[in-house]
Amino acid sequence: MHLYWCNECFIFDKQRNHLVSSDTYGEVVFESDFDIEYLPHLIVDLIMQLKDCTYITKREIVKGKIPSGYDDIKEYVITAKTENLNLQKYQLANITIEYVV
Q1: In this predicted model, what pLDDT tens digit does every residue of 38-47 receive, in sequence order?
Q2: I need a labelling partner for 54 at 20 to 30 A (CA). Which of 13, 69, 78, 86 fits?
Q3: Nearest-angstrom CA–CA distance, 52 and 63
Q4: Phi–psi pair at 96, nearest 5 degrees
Q5: Which candidate, 61, 45, 51, places its Cα nearest to that of 94?
């Protein structure tokens, strides 16, 4: 599953370890295992966090390699601009969204 927001692509793939760097370069890859039945909830929750926000920047922090060695496991910190003063930092496994006004 690919979710696009402000020219950023979020990848949710049950077969994460089969992806290689050419599949994931520049994208935000969800690194946690998940039940496929739970995927719609994850997507809706992420959309609700990003709605009415504008992309500012993304940092990628390499944490290791997938078992095949063909891609990096990363943490992502996304900074998003919002007018909503009630939004707090949001964490979804290896993806963190920080908000600025």
Answers
A1: 999 999 999 9
A2: 13
A3: 30
A4: -115, 135
A5: 61
